[in-house]
Input
Amino acid sequence: MAETELSTEFPKPDGITRWTEVMVSFTAKLGAQGRRVVLVTSGGTKVPLEARAVRFLDNFSSGRRGATSAEAFLAAGYGVLFLYRSRSAFPFAHRFPPQTWLSALRPSGPAQSGRLCLEADEKALPGFAAALQSYQDAAAAGTFLAVEFTTLTEYLHLLQAAAQALNPLGPSAMFYLAAAVSDFYVPVSEMPQHKIPSSGGPLQITMKMVPKMLSPLVKDWAPKAFIISFKLETDPSIVIDRARNALEVYRHQVVVANILESKQSFVVIVTKDSETKLLLSEEEVEKGIEIEEKIVDNLQSQHTAFICDKN
Ligand code: PMT
Output
């Protein structure tokens, strides 16, 4: 799908040119250092039902998969471009919702020379100092860039812009498409201007299918990159077939298959000629190990083999 084609159905959001520049310069700098870069998409897209939108179609995605995976990719030495739904889980912060630190952090004295003095009982915020340190290390090294989306339209344009930024890295670029993107939308031309009145009785709307971006991504936007899509189902008996079907249709490298109820502890990594089950044992859960560490470990090895094969 060409840029003009995308813009016809989904008008360009404000600020897209500026974000494209920021992403291009982020990836070019890391590419010049010989670093691999991964685009992690995360969270769900929001679809407005009205032009002056009061109501939206949204989905369940919390962004936890993307946020935890971004941390694992940074630990593995990747540069991470994190394209995430505004206010969804954020790397290094998502384990600490406000109610944890609002009660644990206390002023330890008056501010001195503009410096805020805070203290906390270490046991009240386990892992907090380490998370802060990891985030600040990534920020100082320039290996992490977060870009926000809310609506489907913003997501689609930012994905295309991110692909433009990562494409020059060839096989060293990875796309890790964990976002839950809406399959349906109301075209701008068919949207009511104002709030749909409830006085009209039950609502009937017809939504159009959103084009799957995997197709232009694999064929045109970043044809040399290592591309991973996700497949979520609620029926375990169909998920592997759906994952295989996606590999056949789009011809990318990997699908991570997961089931809604078990997505935190079990996934299957599906490729053209393999199926690898990744499972967290109870012991691993107790130790605080997360399934994303195993997913990223597996994909990193596959990415290394992919790069060797292309060189
Ligand atoms: O965020 P969490 O709560 O932690 O949950 C994580 C998750 C369950 C959302 C994640 O693990 C996951 O499975 N994400 C993909 C959900 C899905 O099944 O998407 P899909 O079947 O609609 O799309 C398949 C793939 O194509 C996805 O990688 C998607 O990013 C991509 N896609 C989808 C639509 C579209 N128009 N263009 C796309 O490229």
Observations:
- The longest strand covers residues 226-233.
- Residues 124 and 254 are 40 Å apart (CA to CA).
